[in-house]
């Protein structure tokens, strides 16, 4: 792990303190978890067992020695739980503070200024990345919601009750079939043989009336000119 933290050791870090912390962290790191930075307290007086803070790509870990350095207390917070981080620089060092979404506040004081700034930069990058991922995920979910067709509810089929109507039995069809007044009863347009027999028995007045009747049929478009000429010639034979 020390090979991955060479850039940390170049910034007035105590190699022994970093080695102690990293040795204890080896069994605490999760899969795909990488240490991003480690900052160690440096108080004005000699501090044999300084507190330290470790930031990874998944969480913030507070490391506090206990029992004269024989044990270590670890308190961690996922980046999802972090609301904000702050750095306050003073004459003797800097304070790194972070707040959680449950309104808890933690401060590590007497950190070297360079280390405090590194912590703040790393924390800001993680929080910005987390925020961006949530925004992207929200946009993708919204797009899926829009693209997915809405569930079509089956239309309610209206049902109508039908009432049976009693009908009377009709025996006289002639009473319900209307007879148009404009129907012309024409029995004269027959085959030539039967027509000649009928014309021969008619008087001149009847033949003349029949001819007038054919002329009306022609004028009304009910027969063609050729048919009228044929009928006219048949009548003229008997006049």
Give a quick precis of the structure.
With 239 residues, the chain is of the alpha+beta class. Helix content is 36%, strand content 21%.
Find the structural class using helix and strand composition: alpha+beta
Counting structural domains, the number is 2
Uncertain regions spanning at least 5 consecutive residues: 167-193
The biggest beta sheet reads: 4 strands, antiparallel
Rg is 56 Å
Whole-Å distance between the termini? 137 Å
Strand residue content: 15-25%
Tell me about this structure:
- The structure is a single chain.
- By secondary structure, the protein is an alpha+beta fold.
- The chain folds into two domains: 2-132, Roll (PH-domain like), CATH 2.30.29; 189-236, no CATH class.
- Helices cover 36% and strands 21% of the residues.
- It has six helices and seven strands; from the N terminus they run ααβββββββαααα.
- The longest helix has 35 residues, at 113-147.
- The model is unreliable at 167-193 (pLDDT under 50).
Features:
alpha+beta; single chain; four-stranded antiparallel sheet; 6 helices; rod-shaped; 239 residues; three-stranded antiparallel sheet; PH-domain like
List the helices and strands and how they pair.
Elements: H1 6-9, H2 15-25, E1 35-40, E2 52-56, E3 59-66, E4 71-78, E5 82-89, E6 94-100, E7 105-111, H3 113-147, H4 192-200, H5 204-219, H6 225-236
Antiparallel strand pairs: 1-2, 2-3, 3-4, 5-6, 6-7
Helix pairs in contact: 5-6
């Amino acid at each position: 792990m020390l090979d991955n933290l060479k850039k940390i050791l170049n910034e007035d870090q105590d190699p022994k303190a970093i080695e102690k912390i990293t040795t204890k962290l080896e069994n605490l790191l999760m899969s795909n978890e990488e240490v991003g930075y480690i900052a160690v307290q440096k108080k004005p007086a000699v501090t044999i067992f300084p507190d330290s803070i470790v930031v990874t790509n998944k969480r913030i870990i507070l490391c506090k020695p206990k029992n004269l350095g024989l044990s270590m207390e670890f308190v961690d917070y996922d980046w999802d739980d972090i609301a904000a981080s702050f750095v306050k620089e003073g004459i003797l060092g800097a304070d790194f503070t972070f707040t959680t979404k449950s309104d808890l506040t933690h401060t590590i004081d007497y950190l070297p200024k360079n280390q405090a700034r590194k912590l703040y930069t790393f924390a800001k990058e993680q929080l910005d990345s987390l925020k961006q991922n949530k925004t992207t995920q929200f946009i993708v979910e919204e797009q899926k919601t829009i693209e997915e067709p809405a569930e079509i509810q089956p239309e309610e089929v209206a049902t109508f009750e039908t009432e049976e109507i009693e009908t009377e039995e009709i025996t006289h069809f002639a009473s319900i079939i209307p007879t148009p007044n404009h129907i012309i009863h024409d029995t004269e347009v027959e085959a030539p043989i039967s027509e000649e027999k009928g014309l021969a028995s008619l008087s001149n007045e009847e033949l003349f009336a029949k001819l007038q009747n054919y002329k009306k049929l022609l004028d009304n478009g009910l027969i063609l000119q050729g048919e009228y000429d044929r009928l006219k010639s048949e009548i003229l034979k008997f006049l």
